[in-house]
Amino acid sequence: MKSAELAVERAQLLKRPSLNASGSLSVNDNGDDSTSLGLTLSGPIYQGGALPSQVRQAMAQRDAARAQLYSTGLSVDQQVGNAYADLAVAVASVDASDRQVRAAELALRGVREEFQLGARTTLDVLDQEQEVLDARTNLVSAIADRYAAIYQVMDAMGILTAEQLGLNVPIYDPAAYYNAVKDAPLRTPSKQGAALDRVLKSLGKE
Questions:
Q1: End-to-end Cα spacing for the chain
Q2: Which three-class secondary structure string do you get for 8-49?
Q3: What is the pTM of this model?
Q4: 112-171 pLDDT tens trace
Q5: How many CA atoms lie within 13 A of 62 on its CB side?
Q6: What residue segments make up the domains of the chain, in order of their start?
């Protein structure tokens, strides 16, 4: 965006005149000196509309860059909003699944007591146990979806990085990598080459 602004300013400057100053001092064999000063004013007189066209083109490119930046911002906002909405749904699903598990377990206790009294069959108990297992499975799936939604939010915000997650892995450092290879020879093994090998090995590239 900044480069587009500079391009407009440069195109506008081409329409302005320029003033140059020059001077000289010379001394001959007799010891006499002479001094001269001069000013030169130059600028475009007639370019057939080329300069205004360049200004309009630069402005159009600048406006296009602004529109692209604005569109990108809207897209990012929408992605973050969608990710948060998905997270809210996932959290609600976990709460609902947890309630379902507790209700199924309570129902299972009631069916077992009725079985002891002869009011229920073994099949009734097995069916209710299956209900509990299904509810617990749904809860595990909902918890997994919640974690996935959290990572989607972080990804949309641009913070799904090893540093943010606190992962115990080598972090790529561009400055350290450059310092390790800037003086490395192309063919002859050296200390710099060994340093590069260590960096690549720590990054899992070797």
A1: 39
A2: HHHHHHCCCCEEEEEEEEEECCCCCEEEEEEEEEECCCCCCC
A3: 0.58
A4: 999 999 999 999 999 999 999 999 999 999 999 999 999 999 999 988 888 888 888 888
A5: 16
A6: 81-168, 170-206
Contact 44, 15 (CB under 8 A): yes
Structure tokens at 21: 């100053």
Query: Per-residue DSSP letters for the chain?
Result: -HHHHHHHHHHHHTTS-EEEEEEEEEE-TTS-EEEEEEEEEE--S--TTHHHHHHHHHHHHHHHHHHHHHHHHHHHHHHHHHHHHHHHHHHHHHHHHHHHHHHHHHHHHHHHHHHHTTSS-HHHHHHHHHHHHHHHHHHHHHHHHHHHHHHHHHHHHT--SHHHHT-SSPPP-HHHHHHHHTT--SSS--HHHHHHHHHHHHTT--
Whether 112 and 126 have beta carbons less than 8 Å apart is answered as no
Which residues are CB-contacts of 200 (< 8 A; sequence separation ≥ 6)?
206
CB 37 within 8 A of CB 23: yes
